[in-house]
Amino acid sequence: MIGIIFGPPGSGKGTQAARLQEDLGIHHLSTGAILRGEVARGTALGKEVGRIMAAGDLVPDDLIVDVVRARLPEAERGVGALLDGFPRTVAQAQALDRMLADEGHRLSFIVALDVPEEDLEARLLHRAQVEGRTDDTREVIAERMHEYHKLTKAVLDHYREQGVRIDTIDGTGTPDEVFERIRAAVRGISSG
Ligand code: AMP
Fold first, then answer.
1. Which of 6, 100, 101, 136 could be stapled to 105 by a disulfide with Cβ–Cβ 3.0 to 4.6 Å?
2. Which residue's CA is the closest to the ligand 1 atom numbered 2?
3. Which residue puts its alpha carbon closest to atom 6 of ligand 1?
4. 169 with 112: CB under 8 angstroms?
5. Interhelix angle for 61-76 vs 44-55, to 10°?
6. Given this structure, which CATH class describes domain 2-183?
7. Would you call 88 a catalytic residue per the annotation?
């Protein structure tokens, strides 16, 4: 199974993907977490992307596609992989489609978290206090939302046109409530 957990910044993708990994054994692959690890370790890649991430911009497609290409085969083993934060542009989606096609695989499902715009900033500012993510400031959040609307939302249309199953999930309420909604939807997928 290869799935995508999709949604704007602050919609709860990371939280829910971690729970799905625990519950279903599906491998949570977060490009944001990978990049933050590279920045923290001060690797060449981390040095290249640190400033871009701090500004709330997207890192170049070819760079992030290489990151995913290097990790996808391992992540797909077993139950499969749940992509969080990737693909974020149509070009990335096309690159993913090619990677999967080369292996004879295709995308199984998309879970799209739906949270009202006005809740997202409050959630991210709260996360800044709890987790200390440096890109959760008002100014950088605004840039990340801008990138989401300008480039990332179109990824859903790309997959809608391909007929990929997209479950839109109400992402409001407690993490437990959201998780139950996702689990009900994903259960439907694995039973066909
Ligand atoms: P996230 O944790 O998914 O919110 O990602 C944090 C930051 O990492 C983003 O604001 C981007 O700067 C960068 N990033 C993560 N995934 C991608 C991607 N697929 N394409 C471009 N930039 C990404």
1. 100
2. 32
3. 32
4. yes
5. 110
6. alpha beta
7. yes
